[in-house]
Amino acid sequence: MQVTTQANRNIPEQDGRDASFDGDDQVDRLQIADLKLTSRLLLGTSGYPSPQVMMESIEASDSQLITVAIRRVNLAERGEESFLSLLDSLPVQLLPNTAGCYTAKEAVLVAELAREALETNLIKLEVIGDDETLLPDVEQLLKAASELISADFTVLAYSNDDPITCRKLADMGCAAVMPLASPIGSGMGIVNPYNLELIRQLIPDLPLLVDAGIGTASDAARAMELGYDGVLLNTAVSKAKHPVQMATAMKHAIIGGRLAYLGGRIPRKFYAEASSSMDGRIEGAPGATGASEASS
Amino acid sequence: MSMISIKINGQQARTAPQSTLADILLVRKIDAQSTRGVAVALNDAIVRRNDWGNRVIGEGDQIEIVTAQQGG
Fold it and tell me: Burial, A63: exposed, middle or buried (Cβ in 10 Å; 0-12, 13-18, 19+)?
């Protein structure tokens, strides 16, 4: 980011990349490994007030890739209507996560269990270093990512917002790198937009998603305006006062943010630049402090 | 017949000696052919469903039976 010393200092924006068109239908798709998605919103399934609200929120969001956790079967209650069978009725792909894993060993086992249970190579890799912040343990995360990639998993890696860590994940072969906006569930939105911009610049060609800490629609829009390929969120919708409404808001925010990015925003300028031309103004009354020869 | 002690999903359980993993799962209405969405680990290592019938369970073994649940 360069800041010049001219009167109208421009902070150069990133060049808007072209939309990700696939084929002739001119639809801007998000491609992660073999997945081709028209929605850039990935939605979590945790923390909703009821299964019904969860289902309605997923539908309102138009999300096509939904995260789930891998947890013990409730052996006491093996009823017909399981969580999985609910999701079966939706046109969504499941993305299992390794939430709650603190070591590479745990994460790799959970990923293998997920692959066996759900018959997918997709895995959202989380390896946590601290209970309060849920920030990743970078060393274990990198180790886990490397092992899972060697075992043919399609790894979407939840990461901190350190550009070097993100680049390592990208270089080793993750299908997507997903730096946080702020800690999981914190709703603080993007706390370090500078780092997210750096990450985008350092990793121009791999899908990057902002994952964790999104609080409201404008946070999601901002992530897309930074050039990110998608947003993963959960709590912002599931714990909103009206989750279905918020899911709808997120859907629109992500579409809007993406279009704004592709539209190519104007640069930020330190001083004003009149939008109405100075040509053709009427003359002011004699003695009035008329406009000076301002540039238009 | 003396039973052996094992753990299933964190709970103590007893089973007949020479039970296979498949036997133990079947009692809990999980079978390799028809049950979807489930995976099993034995002592921190995954056991694929093809092998459920081959693995004999021993004293002190820990079995984890998992599925997808709500998560972010």
Answer: buried
What pLDDT digit, counting tens, does each position of A64-118 carry? Answer: 999 999 999 999 887 656 899 999 999 999 999 999 999 999 999 999 999 999 9
Cα–Cα dist A193/A2, whole Å = 15
Q: What is the ipTM of this complex?
A: 0.96
Pick from A162, A257, A231, A233: nearest CA to A203 = A162
Mean of the pLDDT values across residues A166-178?
98
The nearest alpha carbon in chain A to B63 belongs to A72
- Using CB atoms, pick whichever of A68, A73, A185 lies closest to residue B71: A68
Check CB contact under 8 Å for A46 and B66.
Answer: no
Q: What angle do CA A156, A161, A163 make, to 5 degrees?
A: 90
Closest by CA to A231, choosing from A204, A196, A205, is: A196
Taking the alpha carbons at both ends of chain B, their separation in whole angstroms is 46
Enumerate residues 17 to 56 of chain B having a beta carbon within 8 A of any beta carbon in chain A.
28-30, 36-41, 44-46, 48-49
